[in-house]
Structures are given as structure tokens and as C-alpha cells.
Write a structure and sequence with these properties.
Elements lengths: L4 E8 L1 E2 L11 E2 L5 H14 L1 H4 L3 E9 L2 H4 L1 H14 L2 E11 L6 H9 L4 E7 L3 H6 L6 H13 L5 E7 L6 H13 L4 E6 L7 H6 L8 H17 L3 E4 L2 E3 L6 H7 L4 E4 L4 E4 L2 E4 L4 H5 L5 E2 L1
Parallel strand pairs: 1-4, 1-11, 2-3, 4-5, 5-6, 6-7, 7-8
Antiparallel strand pairs: 8-10, 9-10, 12-13, 13-14
Helix pairs in contact: 1-4, 4-5, 8-10
């Protein structure tokens, strides 16, 4: 009898720097922790093997943080551990989140040759002033070059992340970001509205600011996005996600359809055997071998 499908999410909590809007659990300036975290991650993956073997793994997603900053060698070692200890299908969708400033051609080529078949690149905007304002480390020219480099390395399934509702971002800015992104012909686009999260620098700087789009203006940007991408052949299959035919993210669909998924790493969430659980947003607890917390 065929086993049920399972998605696996691995959270890499390291970044070169924190963006002003980011509320995800990530740490800047903690590179010295990478080796000990890597071993702890392997230990947790091995411990999870008995549960994974009850399923067929059809999606693996390395998120963060910035997995491309963590490095191809470490990511591929984790992939190997999963292949050794779980039922990873030959056609598994394997996604790595990347930021343009930490993408290297030799690493991209190595990942592609070893079975990584999908990239999610954080572009966010094409206006350099907006990118600088929100704390991104790249400009639009670097983002475009990173995308072309990924194509050269052999990736034929690439998603681009974009954001709308940024401080002082106009509807024309948003339209330009979408147009420039579509010109590159990615297979997938994720378009997210800015949400100011308490505790982030942008929350402190912009909460209640007239520079922010109001709800109606954000709704207009969202509506324009959906209509524009539909004209270019991108199907909206989830609130923020649009895909060319056949390129819907398998991993996103596990979440959207309430199918089983297993998250490993600090702040990673899981839904397995009808139960929801998560690892606390605490690197030290994860390094100490603390297990997940059940809801």
C-alpha cells in the first residue's frame, strides 16, 4: 500500500543581517554557532527517522533565515541525511531559499547536480531606494544577475518573492516590480503584503506612519497583482502564491491542504498524525536537544 505523502521543512536561523520588517526567527552575527547547530540538526533529523519512514517524502524545503548563507555543503549534507533516514522520493521537490547577496555560481551548480531542483529568491522590490530602506543587502541589478546565474546553473523552477505596501511605495512602484519580475519569466511568484510585527525595527519606525499604504490601498495593490499575473499566465493557487501551469509549490500545498508536514529547527512547526507541535524560537534550547512542544 502506498504511504501518505509528507513535506519536510528545515529552518536555518542564520542571516548576514536582519531586515527591518522580519519577524521570522533568525540570528545575525552568529556564524560561529553554525557548526554546532549543524550537528544538532543532523541529530534531530536522525531521531525523527522512525516517524518519517511512515511516509513518502515528496517535498523538502530549506527556509530561514537565509539557507544560501548557510552554504551548499551543509545543505547537501542535510539532504543526504534525509535520503539515508527517510523515504525520499526520486521526484521530490527540493527548495532552497536564497538571498541574492549570498548566491554563488559554484554552489548553485553543486546543489543542482545533487538534486536541489527549486529556488526561492528574495527580491522584494526593484527600486533600490526601497530595498535599502527595508534593510535588504542587494540592489535590483544584483537580484537580476543572481536570477540569471541560477538559470545558468541549471535551475528551471525558480520562485521570486516580492512585497507590497512598503513605506512610501507607490502603486506605480509595485506595478514596476511586478513587470520587471515577469520579464524574467520565473515559474512562480510569491507576493506578500507588508505586515508590521511588534518588536521589529520597522514597527518602531513606521507604526501609524502616513508613509504606509492604508488597507484600501493595499487591497488595490493585491487586486492589481492578481489580475496582472493572471494575464501573464500565472495561476493564483493560494492567497499569496502564483504559478505557471504545473509549477505550484508542492510544499506550499502541504500547508494549504492541511496535509502532513514535519518541521525541524528552532521555530519550525509540524502537523503529523493529526497533532500540531513546534520547536521554540530558541537556538540554545535546540542545541541542548530539547524536543518540540505540542499544542
Amino acid at each position: 500500500m502506498e504511504r501518505p505523502r509528507l513535506g519536510i521543512y528545515i529552518h536555518i536561523p542564520f542571516c548576514a543581517s536582519k531586515c527591518g520588517y522580519c519577524d521570522f526567527y533568525s540570528l545575525a552575527g552568529s556564524e560561529k554557532q553554525m557548526p554546532i547547530f549543524h550537528q544538532a540538526l543532523i541529530d534531530h533529523l536522525v531521531e525523527s527517522a522512525p516517524s518519517i519512514r511512515n511516509y513518502e517524502v515528496d517535498s523538502i524545503y530549506f527556509g530561514g533565515g537565509t539557507p544560501s548563507y548557510y552554504g551548499a555543503e551543509r545543505l547537501l549534507e542535510l539532504f543526504d541525511v534525509l535520503k539515508l533516514n527517510g523515504n525520499v522520493r526520486f521526484d521530490t521537490e527540493v527548495t532552497v531559499e536564497c538571498n541574492p547577496d549570498s548566491m554563488r555560481y559554484d554552489e548553485l551548480r553543486e546543489m543542482r547536480e545533487e538534486g536541489v531542483n527549486r529556488l526561492s529568491i528574495g527580491v522584494q522590490a526593484v527600486q533600490d531606494d526601497l530595498l535599502k530602506m527595508i534593510g535588504r543587502r542587494h540592489n535590483w541589478a544584483q537580484a537580476r544577475e543572481a536570477y540569471l546565474m541560477a538559470r545558468k546553473a541549471g535551475f528551471d523552477n525558480i520562485s521570486l518573492d516580492l512585497m507590497y505596501g512598503l513605506p512610501s511605495q507607490t502603486k506605480r512602484d509595485w506595478a514596476e516590480s511586478l513587470a520587471r519580475a515577469v520579464e524574467l519569466k520565473p515559474e512562480h511568484l510569491s507576493c506578500y503584503a507588508l505586515k508590521l510585527e511588534e518588536g521589529t525595527p520597522m514597527y518602531e519606525n513606521y507604526k501609524g506612519s502616513p508613509l504606509l499604504a492604508d488597507d484600501d490601498e493595499q487591497a488595490d495593490m493585491y487586486s492589481y497583482c492578481a489580475q496582472m499575473l493572471e494575464r501573464y499566465g500565472y495561476k493564483q493557487y493560494e492567497i499569496s502564491n502564483f504559478a505557471a501551469p504545473g509549477f505550484e509549490s508542492r510544499h506550499n500545498l502541504h500547508y494549504w491542504l492541511c496535509e502532513p508536514y514535519l518541521g525541524i529547527g528552532p521555530a519550525a512547526h509540524s502537523f503529523l498524525c493529526g497533532k500540531r507541535f513546534y520547536y521554540p524560537r530558541d537556538l540554545r534550547a535546540f542545541l541542548n536537544g530539547d524536543g518540540p512542544v505540542f499544542d
